[in-house]
Design a protein that fits this description.
This protein is an alpha/beta fold. The chain is 45% helix and 21% strand. It has 4 domains: 3-138, Rossmann fold (3-Layer(aba) Sandwich); 148-259, 2-Layer Sandwich (Beta-Lactamase), CATH 3.30.450.20; 264-336, Orthogonal Bundle (Helix Hairpins); 344-493, Heat Shock Protein 90 (2-Layer Sandwich), CATH 3.30.565.10. The structure holds adenosine-5'-diphosphate. Adenosine-5'-diphosphate (ADP) binds at residues 395, 399-400, 403, 427, 429-432, 440, 445-447, 452, 457-462, 486.
Length: 497
């Protein structure tokens, strides 16, 4: 307690020198900083200068008496504890002084111990008051820190270039930043407080946000990004996540909106470019292919074996390029949404029977069995472009043939699953490791291992299949085990099912 911050200053005011200096000695010894004054007016000056915490004040002094000094001290600072020093005869005066606001009194003459006890009691009160004040200050500081932190985060969210919107557990918007209002073409004065569908013009996204807000997607990983376009040419990508509380309970949803219009334009330009180049290449390549076929036919007996082999390889390569171009053109048509422009009512059992018949010679060439298992009852019809359906199942069955060893088994099982027709293409071929399964629907992705390396392909078949299934409102899933085989399941919504 000797350091300057915590040390307590005491002023001893007494006209009797012995008491003044005696008290000074005793109090200094126990760690106080002591000032002395022999008269009332001097005492008031010292109070002004050093702001003592305690004043030991003799009531009976010549000149300004103790009561008057007490009154001045109380006016200067009510926090100063005044201990009055009185003679036996003036106990009543001491009581009066207490009534005037003195903190305690000590009768004269006193023993050093008596002085120590009275002063220590006052010092204890001062320390407690200081501690209480410190705590109070700390509390205020923490609260104001919190306030600053809150307003800092709010300012950051308000200034973010991406749109941010937060809902509560019932789908009501509780926060929306200016960028979000701008991206969604909302009135800049529109505040939070309404349901999500009043802000987001896309029904699927509103539904998704309601589901997330109500805690249906607590696993962060399983929420796909959602892209949508506004009436203007603006395309937005929304990423939604649940907001979880401390006990992992769902408190609402947070959405982040990004403008992807430029990306969409670039994507379209790229597709147009690919489509154009493919289109330009198709005719000359077909011509080369046909001419190679003619040359090979003409030279079949006359040319040396070596030339024949080279020409046949060239013909195979051009065939590969023609299929690649065909796939690229199909993909760009799907991306433009024009593949299913001639929807008809189709009986899937007839269509699958034809495809399986057509491909069975290919399976037979590898000694594979290819069987179609239709349900006993006839299937409801499907509204679709027949070319799209042929492409979906033709690709899946061809893949099953290509990626299954000689003598393998391929099955096409058809049944109903609720309102959907379910077609499973099952093979007991090479199969794929788990890590490939969500990538094989990406363009140009091919699994390259010792068994598949030499199988020619473009890596575009499954993206085409996925694009077509999506455009028909269906779902495609894959299960596969390396060395055991793969199952591709397609669900397509049936008419009047
Ligand atoms: P492509 O067959 O022209 O390579 P796809 O897009 O049709 O392209 O298929 C992508 C990849 O997925 C293939 O390269 C192959 O590795 C894998 N794959 C597709 N179907 C099967 C299957 N039935 N069994 C094993 N792997 C398959």
């Amino acid at each position: 307690m000797n350091n300057d911050v915590d040390a307590i200053r005491i002023l001893v005011v007494d006209d009797e020198r012995d008491i003044r200096e005696g008290s000074e000695r005793i109090l200094k010894r126990i760690g106080f900083i002591v000032h002395i004054a022999d008269r009332g007016d001097v005492a008031l000056k010292v109070v002004k200068e050093v702001h003592p915490a305690i004043v030991l004040l003799d009531l009976k002094m010549p000149g300004m008496d103790g009561m008057e000094v007490l009154e001045h001290i109380r006016q200067m600072d009510e926090g100063i504890l005044v201990i009055v020093i009185t003679g036996y005869a003036t106990v009543e005066t001491a009581i009066m002084a207490m009534k005037q606001g003195a903190y305690d009194f000590i009768p004269k003459p006193f023993e050093p111990d008596q002085l120590r006890i009275v002063v220590n009691r006052a010092a204890e009160k001062i320390r407690l008051t200081r501690d209480a004040r410190k705590l109070e200050e700390e509390k205020t500081r923490t609260l104001s820190d919190l306030d600053t932190e809150k307003s800092r985060i709010r300012t950051i969210i308000e200034s973010l270039p991406d749109g941010v919107l937060v809902t509560n557990a019932s789908g009501k918007v509780v926060l929306i930043n200016p960028s979000c209002k701008q991206l969604l073409n909302l009135d800049p004065d529109m505040g939070p407080g309404r349901q999500i569908e009043d802000y987001v013009p896309d029904e699927t996204l509103s539904k998704l946000v309601m589901e997330i807000s109500k805690g249906k997607h607590v696993d962060y990983g399983d929420i796909p990004d959602h892209e949508f376009n506004l009436a203007t040419d603006t395309y937005l990508r929304a990423r939604a996540q649940p907001v979880l509380g401390e006990r992992k309970e769902c408190l609402g949803a947070v959405l982040n909106f990004v403008d992807i219009s430029t990306m969409k334009v670039l994507d379209r330009l790229k597709s147009e470019f690919v489509a154009k180049v493919s289109h330009e290449l198709r005719s000359p390549l077909s011509t080369i292919h046909e001419q190679l076929a003619m040359v090979i036919g003409d030279l079949v007996n006359s040319a040396p074996q070596q030339d024949h082999h080279i020409l046949t390889r060239a013909k195979e390569k051009t065939q590969g390029m023609i299929s690649l171009i065909g796939d690229l053109l199909d993909l760009s048509r799907i991306e433009e949404g024009i593949i299913c422009h001639e929807p008809k009512s189709i009986r899937l059992d007839d269509l699958l029977t034809n495809i399986v018949d057509f491909l069975s010679s290919r399976a037979a060439a590898s000694s594979q069995s290819l069987t179609l298992n239709l349900p006993p009852q006839s299937l409801p019809e499907i509204t679709a472009d027949p070319l799209a359906l042929e492409s979906i199942f033709g690709n899946l069955i061809t893949n099953a043939i290509n990626y299954t060893q000689e003598g393998g088994r391929i099955r096409v099982d058809v049944d109903m699953a609720g309102i959907n027709i379910r077609v499973k293409v099952v093979d007991n071929g090479f199969g794929m490791a788990e890590k490939h399964l969500d990538k094989i629907f990406d363009r140009f992705y091919r699994v390259k291992d010792d068994r598949t390396r030499y199988i020619t392909g473009t890596g575009l078949g499954l993206p085409i299949v996925k694009g077509l299934v999506d455009s028909l409102g269906g779902i495609i899933e894959v299960e596969s085990t390396p060395g055991e085989g793969s199952t591709f399941t397609v669900l397509l919504p049936a008419q009047n099912a």
